[in-house]
Queue: 4 jobs
Job 1
Amino acid sequence: MQDFSKKNSESKKIKFPSELRFDLVSKDWVVIATGRGRRPESFSQERRRAEKISEKKCPFCNIKAQETPILEYKNKKGEWSVVVIPNKFPAFSKGEFLKQRQVGPYRVMDGVGHCEIVITRDHYRQFAQLSVGEMRQVLDAYHERYLDLMNEKFINYVSIFHNHGREAGASIAHPHSQIIAHPLIDPDLKNSLAGSKNFWKKHKKRCVHCAMLDWDKKDGQRIIFENKKFLVLVPFTSRMAFETRIYPKEHLAYFERIEIDEKDYLAEAFQTVLYKLYKGLNNPPYNFFLHTAPCDGRNYDHYHWHWEILPKTSVWAGFELGTGIEISTIEPEKAAEYLKHI
């Protein structure tokens, strides 16, 4: 009979180059490079490609030349500070009918929806440099437009996202976010909803996100900021280096139901984490987006809405594209420790 105990004891001495971590929500495996991982401070030493910026040529600096604003917030001087306009180059457009048809073996549906742009006034000050009050206005715009768009015809999901930096997909340097309301539920969110629902059923209406947050609060290694209402952490199963998430502490499924006083706490959490990434990683390109229960009329009480922030610290190459498995080049615990002290 083979002696496995000896082999197991010997294997514990081996320092493996990575760990496989199973995400309870998505049911996906991620690879954390523990052996060949980079030092946190090395990310701040990367050179950022400088962009030539001209306010005169910027379409968002001259709002009067744009479409009629849908929504506008003003500053103390009476000038617009945050404005929402229709996207001139929309991926979806408004329609009275949602036509579906077959093309050979394929099912085709019209791209019915709404595309809007949320713009902050200052051409040079990115979100990481905004005050909490300014960030609050941005969140107010997100929320107000969400409430209107979710009730539009054929809309099942309202996607809110922000691209910072050319590498992250921002074609215009002027800070802006996008809102796209559409009839679909994307695969990423669908997987997240399915994982949450399965955990909810298996654990007698226990939220998987709440379970993870409770463990993170006890463990303490990956939490980088918290206030009365929100928690900011580096996920245990980070898909890429310095991924962060903002969670409401209370179990809430729907972003649209956020209370007025909670927005101040969310603005503080957002401003804090974006500044930490800006300062600690030397202004990296990044994307952030909202994950919330869909607005399709179904019950999603098992879900827990949150914001995900993904710095562009890596590029998908052959392995990632071929397998769909992402490799984070630093341990989440080290990333969190680094951000905590910024």
Job 2
Amino acid sequence: MSAWTVKIQKKAKKGIAKLPEKVRSALKLLMREIKVSGPVKGNWPNYGKLFPTLHHCHLKKGNPTYVAVLEVRGREINLVEVIYAGTHEKAPY
């Protein structure tokens, strides 16, 4: 199995900068796991496919709930892009 590339959109970078440190750490761990084993993460709570190429994962439950939204782009090039990281209420889905 080849490694996956994880990129972060400019808009998501702004959101990540505003996240609490514990949530940023969870996102970094998620991205490391995706790089090794791909975007389907059955071992993460509340991880799921929204559409065939769009996934979301809760980084922290409670109030507020923080999520990451990921888009898989191209199976051959193994690319996953973080398109959003922030509160659940403002997630683009």
Job 3
Amino acid sequence: MAFDPTGPYNELASLPPTADLQTKPILKECISASRALAELKGAGDRIPNQRILINSIPLQEGRLSSEIENIVTTDDKLFKAAVSKDAPVDPQTKEVLRYRTALKRGYDVLAKRPLSTNLLIGVCSALLDTPVEIRKIPGTRISNPATGEVLYTPPVGEPLIRDKLANLEEFIHIDNGLDPLIRMAVIHYQFEAIHPFHDGNGRTGRILNILYLVQEGLLRLPVLYLSRYIIMHKTEYYQLLRAVTEDKAWEDWILYMLAAIEETARWTCQKVLAIRSLLDSTVEFCREKLRGNVYSKELVELIFFQPYCKIAYVVQAGIAERKTASAYLRELEKAGVLESAKVGRERIYVNPKLLDLLKG
């Protein structure tokens, strides 16, 4: 029987799929993607203060992941809103900021217990800033925003959805001999096909990707710009998802996801190494140019915590009291390391080189 996108896909098959998921092309691409991830993991270990990566990179991933759902903001609005309570924040920027909150919440929970349906409910609740539940009533459909054509109708009925999530959870944790990266591609498809929530499924599914890689030890930190690749190949992403549903075309889908992992891991690795290089050169510059009572490695690392800094951050870090902290930031501005701007009622200091690096 032909697939009907307008009817609930209650026939969504349980995992693991019956198809051959370890074809020669897939295994070959697995090797390359795994190597790229290992390089990224190693690059992250070279950053002395891991908070630098955890705070800056997820904001960029959040912006890109949200852009896939047509939630668009700018880097400038995003970083300003992240640092200043007084900054005017539009709804789109608020949604992107919540992505970082949701990712961090999931990452923190993962340190205590493994991936689960409840963890994903918590992630989606943080994304939407409201408690979410598994869908109980029908009516959820995925449509072409331009034409209104229904492209997919996910399974309906809370008991059925919970059964499929339980099967997904089992697949995540049982060692079935599949390479973890192949399993990630399968997990991502299955979560998107189940579509368990009324909203936020796409972003929750992309956070699931990152958390799974962390759980499997392939990443130490949740720093992978996977959404960048999806945006660049957005039409293919949706076409391949649909091809799995309609034709069980698993190989093409898995190869797409492996290519996404490899390319974005290499790109993110370059980004991380560039941050490290800029940090080192800034430390050296400040050591040579600033007066001894101004320079400290802790202060330089703080201005890399994210591209915008403010006096309160210096105080909270225990580096200086408020008056002295203000003087330190002004000295960094005079030296050309920072640039200041008034946002609302407070003055913030931007690290322009870091901001440009993250934008690029």
Job 4
Amino acid sequence: MLKIAICDDEAAAVSVEKNILREDLVARGLSAEITGYTDAETLEDVIKAGSHYDLLLLDIDMPRKDGIELGTELHELLQDTLLIYVSGRPERVFDSFKARPFRFIRKPMLEQEWPIIWQDVEKELKRRQASFFVFTSKSNQIRMKSEAIAYVEALRKKQILHTEKEEYELNDGFESVAAELEGFGFIRIHRSYIVNYRFIHSINRTDVELDDGTILPIGRSKHQAVSQEFHRLVQRELSKA
């Protein structure tokens, strides 16, 4: 489900924008949780507290803190959020570039322009979501960039996901996790380990050493296949440079 936030100091504008988006998305067979805010400070507090939105529609002219100031301040926290300015002040479009928005929509034209903008939004969301892994740990659903995951291990009856700083016990089975991560640059080095090639420091005959010194075993017959896959992934990355 899409999570969308709309922020405009006029409650009536928030209501109109919510209805336009909801009606269009429903017509497309999509569901969305759309939350409205009438001041930038409240939205800022919610985002800083950890709330995530796929899409954020911001007005520009708001009292105390305007949308450009808010978007600029939250730029680091909004890396995974598409920011769209919806404003009746088209002359401020160049000012809005400070926050690196995805699009700028003229407020009076939202109903006409939104269906066109949505096509670009949908493509970009799909592109971004393709690099994320969503998993459930205990009672929490967590969304994480695949590049941040170092490795996943099956430890007796538990599946443990490791990042550089944290560990998460997964609710899903190891095989389903391995299958989902396969296209994200992970290598099956052992029946109980899948490793992100980006964290591999060296590959030896019996084990793999990660950048932080962690040693993980290689399956008896997997050394050659692991080495070949590692080099293939490295070359693929180099070709993008």
